[in-house]
Design goal:
Layout: H1 2-34, H2 44-53, H3 56-64, H4 81-94, H5 101-116
């Protein structure tokens, strides 16, 4: 009898584990469906860190005034995920930031998530 109770308990744990795995797979599918392909494998934590380290907001404030967020609305210049990544690469080059391609993509992915929200 005790062994049967243990098996039932383990079965419940296995079912709960399967539920968590199913939830994780659903989250991944949702992300895949809502994030443009160019940003799907981007490291968002890295992008956030690089934005802080390179003081992007301070430069944007100097360029456009206010809190700097108006730089994210440049009258049609950035209208696709690729154009967004290209603009981050332009900042990387102009400011001599020395970011690697995956770092540029990570920064652009954070901007996508927080400001642009282009459809996939």
């Amino acid at each position: 009898m005790r062994a049967a109770a243990i098996r039932r308990g383990l079965g419940g744990l296995l079912l709960a584990g399967a539920g968590v795995m199913g939830w994780a797979q659903a989250q991944t599918q949702t992300q895949t469906q809502t994030v443009p392909a160019i940003f799907r494998d981007a490291d968002l934590a890295l992008g956030e860190r690089l934005i802080r380290e390179h003081r992007c907001a301070e430069c944007h404030t100097r360029r456009v005034g206010g809190d700097g967020s108006d730089i994210y609305n440049p009258k049609g210049r950035i209208s696709t995920p690729g154009a967004l990544r290209g603009m981050v690469e332009l900042c990387n080059t102009e400011m001599n930031l020395g970011m690697f391609p995956e770092e540029v993509t990570a920064v652009a992915a954070v901007l996508q998530r927080d400001h642009y929200r282009f459809a996939p």
